[in-house]
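Need a sequence for this fold. Nothing fancy.
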């Protein structure tokens, strides 16, 4: 009876043994993979991964950073400074010349308006003396003759003052008419003079230096 039970007890077959071995190996492999995944990451690998991730940001920052300027050549810098110095000296010399010219003009022509106003005084003195001819003065009373002599002395003193300040009269009788210094008041034909010749000075002109204060008012000969 016992032998019969033994003969009918289940036997381990080779197929069952291989299945159990494969299952065990699979479980062991899964356990190793799980331990490998739970193993701490290597710091070197982590740093490398961080550097790789931050590389685009670093490249962008380097692109935004100001570019380093090229060094300045001392020779070029000296040439530029020398050019600026020469320009400044030339401008200074031009300014000095303009100031000197303005000073001379102010000294010579600064009194043009005053001199022009004084011309009427000279005109009135001349008219007063012309009203009494020289030959008529001998018969005048002594006090009147003294008055006339005082007027003549005043005229001479005024004309001397004009001369000291380079104010000179223009009396172009017999000269060719010049519109720059003369003002024609009339033209007279049949004078026997060439056309354009000044035959009469109605009012003397004046100039200061080479500038005109007042043109001379004249009569001009006209062609026949």
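Here you go.
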């Amino acid at each position: 009876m016992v032998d019969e039970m033994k003969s009918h007890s289940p036997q381990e077959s080779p197929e069952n043994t291989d299945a159990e071995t494969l299952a065990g190996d699979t479980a062991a492999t899964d356990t190793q993979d799980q331990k490998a995944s739970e193993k701490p990451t290597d710091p070197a690998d982590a740093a490398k991964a961080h550097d790789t991730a931050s590389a685009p940001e670093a490249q962008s920052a380097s692109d935004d950073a100001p570019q380093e300027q090229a060094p300045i050549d001392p020779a070029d810098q000296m040439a530029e400074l020398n050019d600026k110095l020469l320009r400044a000296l030339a401008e200074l010399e031009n300014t000095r010349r303009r100031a000197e010219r303005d000073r001379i003009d102010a000294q010579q022509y600064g009194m043009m308006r005053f001199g022009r106003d004084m011309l009427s005084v000279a005109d009135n003195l001349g008219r007063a003396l012309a009203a009494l001819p020289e030959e008529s003065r001998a018969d005048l009373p002594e006090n009147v003759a003294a008055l006339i002599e005082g007027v003549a002395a005043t005229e001479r003193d005024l004309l001397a003052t004009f001369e000291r300040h380079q104010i000179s009269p223009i009396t172009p009788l017999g000269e060719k008419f010049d519109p720059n210094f003369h003002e024609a008041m009339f033209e007279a034909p049949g004078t026997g003079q060439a056309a354009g010749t000044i035959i009469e000075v109605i009012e003397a002109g004046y100039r200061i230096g080479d500038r005109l204060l007042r043109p001379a008012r004249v009569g001009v000969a006209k062609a026949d």
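For context: The mean pLDDT is 77.
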